[in-house]
Design goal:
mainly beta; 3 domains; 18-stranded antiparallel beta barrel; 2 helices; globular
Length: 320
Amino acid sequence: MQSGGMQRVMTVLALGAALGGGAGAADLDFGVAYGSGGSLFRVGVTNVTAGRFTLSAAASNRGVEVGVTQGLSLPPAGAVTARTDAAVTWRGGVRVSSQATATLGPVALNLGGAFFTAANVDPLAAWALTPTDLRDRGWDVDFTARYRVNRTLVAVAGGEFGAQNQGLLGVEWRRDLTRVLPPAEGDDPEAEPTTERTGGVTLRLGARAGRGVLGVTGGASYTAESGLTMAVDALVGVGGWGTVGSVSVPDVLGEGSSARAYLAYEPWRTASAPFRAGLETSVPLGTGTLAVDVRGGTGGLGARVGYSFALGGLASRQTP
């Protein structure tokens, strides 16, 4: 890293320490990544509260990043959450992306968009579970709308626009899984048995059509009360097939740890890596959390190691 870049990183680090000390809840994180997409040396501060906003900032050998998140409650049955991230590379390119989630009664809407004139700052972004637009310049927009027809049935409509315009229509069927609890001493033997929820199952069926893709989609998800989640989706249609699957397991490496493995094969995608796979883990370590990710697929392989800790928590530990 050039001396000018190092000075910028140290400036962000000092600013983060000052903000964290004032807010008492900010997190400081360090990260190193290397792979076919290049290297990344990054330091940042996250979870800085400023009124209704949550802020983040980071600097690396590739550029600087800022993020803003805001949540808004819409009583009695609605809420909106929005996040905007911007990155400026040292060469002058920019990437701006925004995600918003809104619920109002039986309707839930997810909307996202991005505009960019530079390659992604993250060298491992190409192999993320969610497909990443790999073009150096362009824009894209995506949305998903869900309407809850009844307690178990949800209608879904969505689309992606930009590099590869396409649309999706489908339905989701959801069911809670329960088990009967053994009767307690003194319970009325004629009373209805008591049950508890053990998890849930979701089945999906639909169709996707657009540039380079036309087919039927189907999938299933399982969630347990322990936090274990599994999901698999597939597309079969004109020109071939594709599938995406993931498994997330809590506490697999000890209390407070987590791990997620995923695999995606979507040969019909033209602006993203068709094959993506990864293993992402996090483990409590000392006063913070250690994260280790390994990702790969079309175009290469990469790994990331990061460590984050709460600045306020560290200060309180050091106070006599």
